[in-house]
Amino acid sequence: MRISKTTAAILGESAAAAILGEADKASMACNKPRAEAHGDKSHVVKACAGGKEKLIRFGQRGVKGSPKKDGESESYRKRREAFKARHAKNIAKGKMSAAYWADRVKW
Description:
Elements: H1 5-11, H2 13-20, E1 34-38, E2 41-49, E3 52-60, H3 74-86, H4 88-91, H5 98-106
Antiparallel strand pairs: 1-2, 2-3
Helix pairs in contact: 1-2
């Protein structure tokens, strides 16, 4: 569903976002990720660190992660380790990176 710029201006940006079901940074709690599809991303979080706030969308939509489970298969373990190795540099950047949140929530 699309809302015209005029309608958004009349309702206000946060009301228009609520109608569309989009994340409103002002109403979100810091560092609390939630599942909310947008484009090709599956989750959203308002990342807060060092006095800065940033809305981060992360996680490939439609793809399940592979969190560690008791009795998991060898292929799932390798899949999880490959993700962490491939994105280690970006995960190390901390809370203000999408890779950090994807690692924490989905992997």
